Amino acid sequence: MSNFQATADAGLSSEDQSSLSSQEPSSLSSQEFIRYSRQIMLDQWGEAKQLKLGQAHVVIIGAGGLANIAASYLAGAGIGRLSIIDEDEVELSNLPRQIAFDLDSIENSKVYELANRLREQNDHIEIISFHQYLDPANIGKLVRDCDLVLDCTDNTVTRHLVNRHCVEQKLPLLSASVAGWHGQLLLVDPEQPQWGCYHCLFPQISSAKEAASCQTLGVAGPMVGVLASFQASQALRYLIDAPSDLASKLVCINGENLAMQSFGRVSDSQCLVCATQKKKPKSQSEHQQ
Length: 289
Known about the structure:
Blueprint lengths: L2 H8 L3 H6 L10 H6 L1 H4 L5 H9 L2 E5 L3 H13 L3 E5 L24 H12 L4 E5 L8 H4 L5 E4 L4 H14 L3 E7 L2 E7 L9 H4 L6 H8 L5 H19 L9 E6 L4 E6 L9 H6 L4 H5 L1
Parallel strand pairs: 1-2, 1-4, 2-3, 4-5
Antiparallel strand pairs: 5-6, 6-7, 7-8
């Protein structure tokens, strides 16, 4: 599919997009069974779960280092639809850790370059590219009608925006981040609100200066790959309903000494995001159900 087609896909209504995959197959084709055979063999996977992945829609926010690798694994695993959102172009300084790009990618749109790479990897899935800056005005249009949201961004302002939107819309959110030799991973599951959200752990930043400092920290390329691999793995486990307690934990990985720690989470009763949602009165339609 060309970049023009990708842009055209992005303009489809949710009804039009859903109709593209309205016919749910009852079994895998012989070629699909061969392609996905190694993962189908896993416990808790099988053909039925592979078919479920083929009907899944994952929104990936960011097209940098985390998204390069996480999206590649999800495309390879057969996720039916991937929507990728990013406004940036490829720069020379991206190449050490954003391995879907090369010298010919420089100054091109990250989402288009990544989408083309994913189509070469698996031409049986749908890739929707949004070369746009995500903000409060458009997030409701761009992040919706999906089974999972992956936050692969590199700044706290966007992370807080995405977290608030996902909590309000009851969309599951899998967030990964890396700074230096350290990374962290967490899942915000609307079905398990007792464990809180991103804002419960990391209150909103208070100034533009603080936000800028978060974006200018150095990062080790291999650590981006480590966190992206964990993010993709947990995304697949979530989508096939495999057991996981990630929704109740913050997982921290130290690349300097190979230590991994899991910290228990609990919702903050004073959280300005998820606690507010819990206190909202039920709508008339909810009362009637």
